Amino acid sequence: WKVVKATDYIEYERSGNRKIMEDPFGENNNAIADLMMAELAEGKGRFVDQLINGVFQSCEMTSWVLSAHLGAQGAQQSKRSLPDYKEHVIDLTAGDLGSLLSWTYYFFHSEFDKVNPVISERLRYELQERILDTYMEVDRFWWMAINLKPGGMVNNWNPWCNFNVLQCFMLLENDKDVLANAVYRTMQSVDKFINYTHSDGACEEGPSYWGHAAGKMYDYLQILHDGTGGKISIFDQPMIKNMGEYIVRSYVGNGWVVNFADASAKGGGDAPIIFRYGKAVGSDLMMEYAAYLNSQSKDKSISFGRDMFRTLQSLYYSDEMNKVKPVYQSPSYTWYPETEFCYMTNKNGLFFAAKGGYNNESHNHNDAGTFSLYLNTTPVLIDAGVGTYTRQTFSDERYSIWTMQSNFHNLPMINGVPQKFGSEYKATKVKFDPKRMSYSANIATAYPKECEVKEWIRSYTLTNNELRIEDSFTLNKTLKNNQINFLTWGDTDISKAGEVIISVKGEKVRLTYDKNSFSPVKETIKLEDPRLSNVWGKEVYRISLNAKTVSLTGKYAFTVQPIKQ
Question: Facing residues of 487 across strands?
Fold first, then answer.
């Protein structure tokens, strides 16, 4: 059992390092989950003593909240990262551990009582104080969205925390009136998340957050359905099905997904959750995709760490999922008209993804109008994603990080100015034409006033042979030469004027531009952060096409074509 020291919490304020506190805490919590599953499987008492140690150590902790959430998220009144004994807070991990310990109490309180009744009494007391009473008595936690203001954000924290709280009440509360009030309060809160989400079902946080957003919402709804004998169920609502199928449509292949904002380009989702969600909403697309992911996975073990509900549900449905025929094929296109995500594919292996949106989405990057391109499931023009979370990531310093800036996305620097953060900075006039396989947006509205841009229409057209990118613009003033940026990885060659050759993992494309209009510059970006290097390797490259002249109006054109080898 690891000791989480006071200085581990304080380190977040000192250096911004989260992991020094999170790693030992996470190891302890995962150990509790493993010990519980081991004892449930074997049933001989071999793991009970260590389970008691884990439970008692957890009860002795001042808080179950992460240091980063105590401070940066403003969860504590003090706004400090060291737990304050005077108040209880519910965040993602306090909720996770609360639900895990509720399952522990539910299954093992009788066994604990054989050793010493104080163990169960103490555990039940802490769960009542930290989770049940706190949830019913406190409404200031931002994720609850009880006091949500117009334009306010509701993200994955909402269904995730409510999912955990609902488990605690269902497992612990025996007074039916108290339970009914608690369940209703969670329903009111989760409604805020569903209402915030666009009816097209896209997850603005990206595929790597789907399991924590729509996925946790599904788990919450499943518990609500099961706990009421199916009397409270919204699985027949089209929006709920759309939210589920987003994870399938965002899959490119070979482990790659369409990533925007803080999402990683690697992933695809967890097969058991996708299968269960698909079964609940009647989506063959989801169930067959889940079976496909399962068939591709070398690791057939079923465990979701401290998420005991998911582990137990996945065991329950595993045989049924294994009998489903594994099928996956990218649709020719997917269009999310409200979230403004667009995916298009052609018969020659190109998969294109672009977004409109605005620059204050959850886990936002300043990226309105950006795109990614894949050839035979391999990314060639990329969105880097995000590095390891630190204090800087969720502070007023966020947009000093290069991965958050529009000039490190596949976007222009207009008059030398990048896009700006804020809800008012967004794509407008967003259009998708499925017949022409074209997508366009005015991205001038995502840039600040000092950019002096009147209109900038960025359009993409996918043909059988190539992707065409066109910029048509009007400026109020000319301040500095425009710069068109592209982010790549692999072997990138700009030696021949008018073209950029990108070679990645056996795939090769040619990006062409007007050599009379642009001068290319290749910048190497070293990736020392493992969260980035584990995806892209040691480095990525920014190709900047610098306009040779300035003008108030103009048009730029670029093409990307596969090179047969």
Answer: 542
